[in-house]
From TrEMBL:
Matching Gene3D superfamilies: VSR Endonuclease
Pfam families found in the cross-reference section: DUF559
Lineage: Bacteria, Candidatus Falkowiibacteriota
Species of the source: Candidatus Falkowbacteria bacterium RIFOXYA2_FULL_38_12
Domain called DUF559: residue spans: 7-114
Name listed for the protein in its UniProt record: DUF559 domain-containing protein
InterPro entries: DUF559, Endonuclease_DUF559_bact, Restrct_endonuc-II-like
């Protein structure tokens, strides 16, 4: 099976099994509830799957669990962010704990970022 089909299948699995943090953030981003912007979740983009994306603002939002604090994953995330930025996307990263414990602060940070984007 080609790589893009594998990504599409994997993205669908991720959408069907969201983390608690993804469920909570999606509650606020879905259905154009958030500044009337259309967000999508678990979207294949190039060689990656992004957690949340708003194409009209070229904004990617990533939620990270503890595994992203490991050296090999820090490097992967840096490479991934570089690829996304090279494609013209702005990236916001939040720890799952931040979303679960401080959703208001996370939403405020997203709003601040959106206000800086064309």
């Amino acid at each position: 099976m080609e790589k893009s089909k594998k990504l599409i299948i994997y993205a669908k699995q991720l959408r069907n099994n969201p983390t608690d943090a993804e469920k909570l953030l999606w509650y606020f981003l879905r259905c154009r509830y958030f500044k009337e912007l259309k967000f999508r979740r678990q979207v294949p983009l190039g060689p990656y799957i992004v957690d949340f994306i708003c194409f009209s603002k070229k904004l990617v939002i990533e939620l990270d669990g503890g595994q992203h604090n490991e050296d090999k994953n820090i490097l992967r995330d840096k490479n991934r962010d570089g690829w996304l930025e090279n494609e013209g996307f702005a990236i916001l990263r939040f720890w799952n704990d931040d979303v679960l414990r401080n959703i208001e602060g996370v939403l405020e940070r997203i709003l601040e970022k959106i206000d800086t984007l064309p």
